[in-house]
Design brief:
The structure holds two protein chains of two kinds. By secondary structure, chain A is of the alpha+beta class. Chain A folds into four domains: 6-110, Alpha-Beta Complex (Sulfite Reductase Hemoprotein, domain 2); 135-292, Sulfite Reductase Hemoprotein, domain 1 (2-Layer Sandwich), CATH 3.30.413.10; 306-398, Sulfite Reductase Hemoprotein, domain 2; 413-551, Sulfite Reductase Hemoprotein, domain 1 (2-Layer Sandwich), CATH 3.30.413. Chain A contains 19 helices and 21 strands. In chain A, strands 16, 17, 18, 19, 20 and 21 form a six-stranded mixed β-sheet that branches. Chain A has a five-stranded antiparallel β-sheet with strand order 1-2-5-4-13. In chain A, strands 3-14-15-12-11 form a five-stranded antiparallel β-sheet. In chain A, strand 14 (370-373) and strand 15 (379-385) form a beta hairpin. In chain A, helix 17 crosses helix 18. The longest helix of chain A has 22 residues, at 6-27. The radius of gyration of chain B is 14 Å and the shape is globular. Chain B has helices spanning 40-51, 77-84, 100-107, 120-123; strands spanning 7-13, 19-23, 26-28, 57-68, 71-74. A five-stranded antiparallel β-sheet of chain B has the order 3-2-1-4-5, sandwiched between helices. Chain B is an alpha+beta fold. In chain B, 26% of the residues lie in helices and 25% in strands. Chain B has one domain (7-116). Chain B contains four helices and five strands; from the N terminus they run βββαββααα. The chains are: A alpha+beta, B alpha+beta. Chain A binds chain B through residues 26-29, 32-33, 46-52, 80, 95-99, 246, 347, 418-420, 422-424, 427, 429-430, 433, 460, 476, 478-481, and chain B through 12, 14-19, 54-55, 58-59, 75-78, 81-82, 85-89, 92-93, 110-113, 120-124.
Chain lengths: 552, 124
């Protein structure tokens, strides 16, 4: 992975010292809360319902062993022993004291982690494929470009006070694991007809109260021109974005009101003004970044491991884990392992300190020290020898991390919701748990197959409900928690926004309703159709009738 | 439905972030110990005092409170969660203390929208 140089390290230390000074002045009463709040938010520190919350940036979801161990230590030392992985591939600690925050930032800086640009109207962490560098599907390693964007966007003076926050995703495979089409900018790596590398640039996607799928404004941007083009997009947005209305300030509103064609034209006009030699990444720098992502240590192995095959045949639990959580690696004899943080009684995305330490140990032994975070709130060990899979599986079982449910009905995205979040209208976690409980039968869950349920506790949509095959939105209806179901959303390459099923349901009705939706699907599906495919073929009516049958 | 004026004053401690409640000039940890205001003038006077405590607390605001057979509880679900802790980790937050007062809060049901929730994106 990318290694920070001396300048990066000095910068993080300086930043931490600066925040320590600011916290000291706030506690001494020299700064008011109005003066201090923007400063703490620039360091990822929010005030939530029960305590402060610190959001730590995990650049494009990539962690090393030392970093995971340090996150475990922070959780144990300064929090209540756990952290929460988010839909932006970051981690949040929910029980932080302001007094401790400077020490925590110091501890993070020692392992090249920080909380910069995890809040505020700036360019946030770039989302990327958790299988980067491991999957044969990718056209190029998206981490290279994500790292270039990280360096370019960190403390970018022109883009530190945008009209609103700004999120970029880089995907490199036909299978999109980044939700690129619901980002402010989605970048999809492509090969041109002449073999050169480029990006399809999609702009104006987003969720929240006004969801949009991003629209392509450039079919093929030569990869070497990425930064100047991004600068042009950001510049048009920075100039014309709606600063007068927080609900209309995201780029999606601008793109929607101008039209993608006109927005793209303005970007081209701006782009033509930019001095490419100044703005674009020099080839030498690109080569330096690229070299950091060449994976050392991959051995030449036979494509199939006999010992693994034998273990899988002898152990049904391992076989189930292999079916659902293990994928092909680009190197023969290796595998990509998804580690689910969605045990049926767990909080989606939570990992406790013991589990984090176990993951670090297992990654060190079995995955070349590489750990990834997915936007679906799971972890990935990207470089596991097939012959090590049985031992890895046992290691995961020992800490409750071998749940074989990736992409299945209980692999649910849920935001922290009203249990923690100051913005939420309703809880999300208990709803996720009630659904997982209802689908405990692993055979039935596998029979149902891929089904993406996503739950948000408010319209801001951190839980990506708009793009759930089944989306669940918590609303406040006369002071009670109600849940509005949507069907047909997708955050993947076939992106779409879900449509509302019908009147809201109370918390106890949600899991039974999901069950009825699944029964309709099982009765109606043809061939290899997923839930989403069946919905798209037969439409809303049969699902609606099944859920609201008692209402007539 | 009663039109009784019944409010409590809440905030978060500056240094820790802990939820606290006002009681006769002091900040207390448990909702059960909170002072209940039955008239607007003393409630607003307490808010003014709290807002002047820049070094002690942040985000002081009044919450609606209701009396029922189970006892006294914040009206809104959000404020009950602040007074208790998250429902997914029953050992975390103020509910860890246990006892009759916590049990009464947990038993409280029915609600209306929390006061002081306007413009939340900006407030956060």
């Amino acid at each position: 992975m990318y290694r920070y140089d001396a300048i990066d390290k000095e910068f993080l230390t300086d930043r931490s010292n600066e925040f320590r000074h600011q916290v000291g002045r706030r506690l001494a009463g020299e700064l008011s809360e109005d003066q201090f709040k923007p400063l703490r938010l620039m360091n990822g520190l929010y005030l939530q319902l029960h305590a402060y919350m610190l959001r730590v940036c995990i650049p494009y979801g990539t962690l090393n062993v030392a970093q995971v161990r340090r996150l475990a230590w922070i959780a144990r030392t300064y929090d209540k022993g756990y952290g929460h992985f988010t839909t932006r591939q970051n981690i949040q600690f929910h029980w932080i004291k302001l007094r401790d925050a400077p020490d925590i930032l110091d501890a993070l800086a020692e392992v090249n982690l920080h909380a910069i640009q995890t809040s505020g109207n700036c360019i946030r962490n770039t989302t990327s494929d958790p299988r980067a560098g491991a999957t044969a599907e990718e056209i190029d390693d998206p981490r290279v470009w994500s790292e270039a964007i990280r360096q370019w966007s960190t403390l970018h003076p022109e883009f530190s006070y945008l009209p609103r926050k700004f999120k970029i995703a880089v995907t490199a495979s036909a299978k999109d694991r980044t939700a690129a089409r619901v980002h402010d900018i989605g970048l999809a790596l492509r090969r041109g007809r002449d073999g050169t590398l480029g990006f399809e640039v999609m702009v104006g996607g987003g969720m929240g109260r006004t969801p949009f799928i991003g629209q392509t404004i450039k079919e093929f941007l030569p990869a070497t021109r990425l930064l100047s083009y991004l600068e042009a997009v950001l510049r048009v947005y920075n100039r014309a974005g709606r600063r007068d209305n927080i609900y209309k300030a995201r780029i999606k509103i601008l793109v929607s009101s101008l039209g993608a064609e006109e927005f793209g034209r303005q970007v081209e006009e701006e782009w033509a003004q930019i001095d490419a030699a100044r703005a674009d990444l020099p080839d030498t720098e690109l080569a330096r970044i690229r070299a950091a992502f060449i994976q050392p240590g991959l051995e030449v192995l036979p494509p199939v491991s006999d010992s693994y095959e034998a273990a899988r045949a002898a152990n049904p639990a391992l076989a189930r884990f292999a079916r659902n959580n293990v994928s092909a690696h680009k190197a023969p004899g290796y595998a990509i392992v998804d580690v689910s943080l969605k045990a049926h009684d767990a909080t989606p995305g939570d990992a406790n300190s013991d589990q984090l330490e176990a993951i670090a140990d297992l990654a060190e032994r079995f995955s070349l020290g590489d750990i990834r975070v997915t936007h679906e709130q799971n972890l990935v060990l990207p470089h596991v020898k097939q012959s090590d899979l049985p031992a890895l599986f046992e290691g995961l079982v020992a800490v409750g991390l071998a749940t074989p449910n990736i992409n299945l009905v209980s692999d649910i995205i849920a935001c922290p919701g009203l249990d923690y979040c100051a913005l939420a209208n309703a809880r999300a976690i208990p709803v996720a748990q009630s659904i997982a409980q209802r689908f405990l039968d692993a055979d039935r869950a596998e029979l149902v197959g891929e089904l993406k349920i996503k739950i948000s506790g408010c319209i801001n949509a951190c839980g990506h409900h708009h793009v759930g095959h089944i989306g669940i939105l918590g609303v406040d209806k006369k002071g009670e928690e109600y849940y509005q179901l949507t069907l047909g959303g997708s955050g993947a390459e076939d992106a779409s926004i879900g449509k509302i099923l019908g009147p809201g349901l109370n918390a106890d009705q949600v899991a039974p309703a999901v069950d009825r939706l699944v029964e309709v699907y099982l009765a109606e599906r043809q061939g290899e159709e997923r839930f989403l495919d069946t919905y798209r073929r037969i439409g809303m009516t049969p699902f609606k009738e099944a859920v609201y049958v008692d209402a007539h | 439905m009663s039109a009784e004026f019944l409010k409590a004053l809440t905030a978060n401690r500056l240094g820790e972030g802990d939820v606290v409640f006002w009681s006769s000039g002091q900040w207390v940890e448990q909702f059960a110990d909170a002072e209940l205001f039955t008239e607007e003038a003393p409630a607003e006077a307490a808010v003014a005092l709290a807002k002047a405590q820049n070094r002690t607390v942040v985000d002081a605001y009044l919450i609606d409170v209701t009396r029922s057979e189970q006892g006294v509880a914040p009206v809104s679900y959000r404020e009950r969660l602040r007074a208790l802790g998250p429902t997914n980790e029953l050992g975390h937050g103020k509910q860890a203390l246990g006892g009759a007062a916590i049990a009464a809060l947990q038993a409280a049901s029915g609600a209306a929208r929390s006061t002081g929730r306007l413009d939340l994106i900006r407030r956060k």
